[in-house]
Structure formats: structure tokens, C-alpha cells
């Protein structure tokens, strides 16, 4: 999966770039209709804020992605969408185990002997 010419940090930078540049289908549902806009990963925070009115603050907001309806804080919302709905994943560059959060993967990687 990883080219051996790349170091671990370079691999991480490439995965981050891949997440940023990946086109994603927005399934935010309003009045029974899905948004269905294709948005690049890096543009998702702005899309959620500008088009769907998700605040970037601690105010509570309900997720309207498909049938989710979960209530979350605005400032943790983008992470929720990335982890749960876009299913972004971070493989450990040593053992290739998959993690949904970069921070959790980095913590694992520090002790990974794989
Ligand atoms: Zn949308
Ligand atoms: Zn949700
Ligand atoms: Zn590992």
C-alpha cells in the first residue's frame, strides 16, 4: 500500500492530501431531499457552514445527514461527518491498521511495533 521510498511522515501527508482532494457526495437531507452536491473533502467544513447552516461554535446542531439526526456541537460537527459519514480513515504506516482519527492513529503509531 505504501511506497517504500516514502517515510512515515510523508505517507501521512499524502493521506491527508488524499482526504482533502477526494470528491464526496453530500447526503444532507432537507425536506426529504438529499443535497447530493459533490464537494471536495477540504471544502466540506465551508459547505456545511454556508449551505446547511452548521455553526462553527459550541451551539448544538442536529445532523441531517441521511437518517442520522444526532445532536452535536457545531465545533465538533465536521469531525463527526468526516468520521461517521465520509468514513475517512488513517492507516498506521507501520502495520496498516485503520483508524478513524488521525490523533488516535498517531498515538498508536508511537507504540506500534508492526
Ligand atoms: Zn450539502
Ligand atoms: Zn450524523
Ligand atoms: Zn501500527
The helix/strand class is: alpha+beta
In this structure, how is the largest beta sheet organized?
2 strands, antiparallel
The percentage of residues in β strands lies in: 15-25%
Helix and strand string, N-terminal first?
Answer: HEEEEHEEHEEH
CATH domain class name = Alpha Beta
How much helix, percentage-wise, in residues?
25-40%
Strand adjacency order, main sheet = 1-4
List bound small molecules.
zinc ion
Q: Which architecture does the CATH hierarchy give at level 2?
A: 2-Layer Sandwich
Protein name: Unplaced genomic scaffold scaffold_19, whole genome shotgun sequence
Q: How would you describe this structure in keywords?
A:
114 residues; alpha+beta; Double Stranded RNA Binding Domain; two-stranded antiparallel ribbon; 8 strands; elongated; binds zinc ion; Unplaced genomic scaffold scaffold_19, whole genome shotgun sequence
Protein architecture, described:
The structure is a single chain. This protein has 114 residues and is an alpha+beta fold. The protein has a single domain, classed as Double Stranded RNA Binding Domain. 39% of the residues lie in helices and 18% in strands. It is built from four helices and eight strands; from the N terminus they run αββββαββαββα. Strands 1-4 form a two-stranded antiparallel sheet. Strands 2-3 form a two-stranded antiparallel ribbon. The longest helix is centred in the N-terminal third of the chain and has 14 residues. It is elongated, with a radius of gyration of 16 Å. The two termini are 15 Å apart. The relative contact order is 0.14.
